[in-house]
């Protein structure tokens, strides 16, 4: 019998996939020609150093740039400058699935808490009881969306959950996963982490055959492909759908009696499997979620694998013949929590090793080593230990800054950074400081941090970055700016050092990164560092991660500004930018 669909939301339909994102428009200034996609990342240490006092307080980022008054929309100045400050690449979401525990929804709730760093703008859980798929979704943090009464609406021993980050505009309820859909043979819920590079062509084909879309979400494409599949068993419908997908996807599905986990053939995004002492099977984006709900880590869901859990136990199917894995290296650099094991490696040990490499290959005389919290802390510990210099907390991060606050009448320079990061003058004053961060994207935040440290009395500020320079956009589930906005794609290391105002600057050398990974190195994706993409987009433009169509906005997808990233183009070798390798 087909599963029924129910929802705690006051909707007239069992599920809704109507978009609600405000379009985000980028209008970057003209930049020099970016690195070509076929160029190699720097093979030597990317180090720039000067003894000259090149720091200028207002040369690069005048106050008016951050607090320009908009009389038509007085709230817009904060949104624009806050987005500029919060410039790190962001993971699209985290997923979890649980089968065989009477408190499945409550365990999902706790697991989503552990995955909150992967998405803070929306959360949802779908649970199954007596063939009914019941959903609760909401905008905000997990603790804001769910309460005892909400979780009481989600009985059953089978559930999936999702936390999301939206890339453009406000995160509205209708975009929050898991999505639930009904089709001829039943109902299905799905939570998806990733991004498809052939989204446009798949959608166009489906629309030609009569499909109607309400969102720009990749997940909706997957649901349509499952619904139109000619195969009868649900599992074969999933396999049929996934064989048409290109790009990154780690997904969990739920039906009236099954939990299914799927990972794309390249394994771009992580997905792990564990088991609780009562035999309940758990899937999650990271092992930190397993730890919180006392589930023992068993293994990864393999690239190209479909894992089915039902009353007959756990079954594994091969999705398709898969090439060498290309796992996202940024999970180890920034996204995952340090206490997680991702792609079979400890994230903590990876980041500590990155810091040790920086201390060895880009040493500098200093009095103290500090980190840009929180993501730079472990690498800074590695740097300090290798350099034999004390690590101290020179920057204190506030974890209570929201997206709204009362602005002072007199504008304060770098107010956004000062709200989030407070310098400790006792640690910094008169000192030669090494500050370790995980990455530089646009460079605007780094320049403000350097200025903050010097205003607190630092004699010298030496920036060390625990990743190679980012020169390419990601098409596989990470929200990164277009290549024209990436500072390392349009400036040399020396030019970046001048822009941010530091006394020296060094990135993690790419060769040293791969040497550290040893035999595992070929299994990682380095497209953001090299411009070489394991799955090349077939289309001129690739949909940005997330949903970008606002409620009530109609028109062709191609006409929606800000929702697309220019696809990678392979230029000839003689067009490679000559200064991509920095001599030391």
From TrEMBL:
Its cofactor is [4Fe-4S] cluster. Its EC number is 2.4.2.14. InterPro entries: GATase_2_dom (IPR017932), Ntn_hydrolases_N (IPR029055), PRTase-like (IPR029057), PRTase_dom (IPR000836), PurF (IPR005854), PurF_N (IPR035584). Pathway: Purine metabolism; IMP biosynthesis via de novo pathway; N(1)-(5-phospho-D-ribosyl)glycinamide from 5-phospho-alpha-D-ribose 1-diphosphate: step 1/2. Keywords: Glutamine amidotransferase, Glycosyltransferase, Iron, Iron-sulfur, Metal-binding, Purine biosynthesis, Transferase. Signal peptide: none annotated. GO terms for biological process: 'de novo' IMP biosynthetic process; purine nucleobase biosynthetic process. It comes from the Eukaryota. It catalyses: 5-phospho-beta-D-ribosylamine + L-glutamate + diphosphate = 5-phospho-alpha-D-ribose 1-diphosphate + L-glutamine + H2O. It is an enzyme of class 2 (transferase). GO terms for molecular function: amidophosphoribosyltransferase activity; iron-sulfur cluster binding. This is amidophosphoribosyltransferase. It comes from Cannabis sativa (Hemp). The lineage of its organism: Eukaryota, Viridiplantae, Streptophyta, Embryophyta, Tracheophyta.
């Amino acid at each position: 019998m087909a599963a029924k669909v129910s929802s705690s939301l006051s909707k007239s339909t069992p599920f809704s996939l109507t978009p609600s994102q405000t379009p985000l428009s980028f209008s970057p200034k003209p930049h020099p020609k970016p690195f070509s996609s076929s160029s190699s990342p720097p093979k030597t240490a990317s180090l720039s150093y000067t003894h000259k006092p090149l720091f200028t307080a207002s040369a690069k980022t005048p106050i008016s740039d951050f607090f320009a008054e908009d009389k038509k929309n007085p709230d817009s100045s904060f949104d624009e400058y806050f987005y500029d400050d919060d410039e790190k690449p962001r993971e699209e979401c985290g997923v979890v699935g649980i089968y065989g525990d009477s408190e499945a929804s409550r365990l999902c709730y706790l697991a989503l808490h552990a995955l909150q760093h992967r998405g803070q703008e929306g959360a949802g859980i779908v649970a199954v009881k007596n063939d009914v798929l019941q959903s609760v979704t909401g905008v905000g943090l997990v603790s804001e969306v769910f309460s005892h009464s909400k979780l009481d609406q989600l009985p059953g021993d089978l559930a999936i959950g999702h936390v999301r980050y939206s890339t453009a505009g406000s995160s509205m309820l209708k975009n929050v996963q898991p999505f639930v859909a009904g089709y001829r043979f039943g109902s299905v819920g799905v939570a998806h982490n990733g991004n498809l590079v052939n989204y446009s062509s798949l959608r166009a084909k489906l629309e030609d055959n009569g499909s109607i879309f309400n969102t720009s979400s990749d997940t909706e494409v997957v649901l349509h492909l499952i619904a139109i599949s000619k195969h009868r068993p649900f599992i074969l419908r999933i396999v049929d759908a996934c064989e048409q997908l290109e790009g990154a996807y780690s997904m969990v599905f739920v039906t009236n009696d099954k939990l299914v986990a799927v990972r794309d053939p390249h394994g771009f995004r992580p997905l792990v499997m564990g088991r609780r002492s009562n035999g309940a099977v758990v899937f999650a984006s990271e092992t930190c979620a397993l730890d919180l709900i006392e589930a023992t880590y068993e293994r990864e869901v393999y690239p190209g694998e479909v894992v089915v859990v039902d009353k007959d136990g756990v079954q594994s199917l091969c999705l398709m013949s898969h090439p060498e894995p290309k796992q996202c290296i940024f999970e180890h650099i920034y996204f995952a929590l340090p206490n997680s094991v991702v792609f079979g490696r400890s994230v903590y040990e990876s980041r500590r090793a990155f810091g040790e490499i920086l201390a060895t290959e880009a040493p500098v005389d200093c009095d103290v080593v500090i980190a840009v919290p929180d993501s730079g802390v472990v690498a800074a510990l590695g740097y300090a230990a290798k350099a034999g210099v004390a690590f101290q907390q020179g920057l204190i991060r506030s974890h209570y800054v929201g997206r709204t606050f009362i602005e002072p009448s007199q504008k304060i320079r770098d107010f956004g950074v000062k709200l989030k990061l407070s310098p400790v003058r006792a640690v910094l004053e008169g000192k030669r400081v090494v500050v370790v961060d995980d990455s530089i994207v646009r460079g605007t935040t780094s320049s403000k941090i350097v200025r903050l440290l010097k205003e607190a009395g630092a004699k010298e500020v030496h920036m060390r970055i625990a990743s190679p320079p980012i020169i390419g956009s990601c098409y596989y589930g990470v929200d990164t700016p277009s290549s024209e906005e990436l500072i390392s794609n349009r400036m040399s290391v020396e030019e970046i050092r001048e822009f941010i105002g530091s006394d020296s600057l060094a990135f993690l050398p790419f060769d040293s990164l791969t040497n550290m990974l040893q035999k595992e190195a070929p299994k990682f994706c380095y497209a953001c560092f090299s411009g070489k993409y394991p799955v090349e987009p077939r289309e001129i433009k690739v949909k940005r991660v997330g949903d970008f169509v606002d409620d009530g906005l109609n028109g062709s997808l191609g006409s929606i500004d800000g929702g697309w990233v220019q696809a990678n183009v392979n230029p000839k070798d003689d067009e490679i930018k000559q200064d991509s390798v920095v001599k030391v």
